[in-house]
Amino acid sequence: MIFFITSCESRTYEEISDNTPITSVVKYESDLKPIMDSNCTSCHSASGFKPLNNYNLVKENIDIIINRIQRPAGDPLKMPQGGSLSPNQINLFVKWKADGLIEN
């Protein structure tokens, strides 16, 4: 019988990178907002559960967002529900945080 041990840990951009480094500074308006609009705001709109429809709300919840989008397939807390962001899209969120959560 094999046991898997998991722990809660914070991983750096380099540790989760798909070996295609994002060399430019990641910004909310140009890089993340389109991802949020097409994958998240249908459920997380201003009138929805846990609104994530603007820069300040995404910035305030970035740790939760990263946690949820990095969860493995089949995890009931994985976001977006019923789908997944690409590794590059996930890396953009992690890099945005590392870059200082720049808006424009």
TrEMBL record:
InterPro entries: Cyt_c-like_dom_sf. It comes from the Bacteria. This is Cytochrome c domain-containing protein.
